[in-house]
Write a structure and sequence with these properties.
Blueprint (H helix, E strand, L loop, with lengths): L20 E4 L2 E4 L46 E3 L5 E3 L2 E4 L2 E4 L18
């Protein structure tokens, strides 16, 4: 049994993650749904089904900002005031944060250009 830490669903049976948008560097982006033409009906990494969202951290998810592989594209990284790289990714379901855990449950604006209000 594999439970997604963010959406709390069983990854082997759920359609996909419930997080429908990502906030990258203070800009909200809709996530891409997993798509298969004639291939497998489930993602080989996170087990999302065709039409569902990949679970966060999936190797196969594309970045909604640059369309490259999300886990390695660099869009989720930013430099802090000390010059250190820090992750800026926030995942939301509607207007509620699900990732990172420290912000889980926080309500945000639905305005895609000003998610923090």
């Amino acid at each position: 049994m594999a439970i997604c830490e963010d959406c709390q669903q069983e990854m082997n049976t759920a359609e996909g993650c419930s997080a429908d948008a990502l906030i990258l560097n203070d800009q909200r982006y809709a996530r891409f749904r997993m798509r298969t033409d004639d291939g497998p009906r489930r993602c080989g990494d996170c087990r999302a089904s065709s039409g569902g969202y990949h679970h966060l951290g999936c190797d196969m998810e594309r970045c909604p900002r640059c369309r490259r592989q999300l886990i390695s594209c660099g869009c989720v990284q930013a430099e802090d005031e000390d010059g250190e790289d820090t992750e800026t990714l926030v995942a939301v379901v509607g207007d509620t944060v699900v990732y990172p855990a420290a912000l889980r449950g926080l309500r945000i604006s639905s305005d895609p250009t000003k998610p923090w209000g």
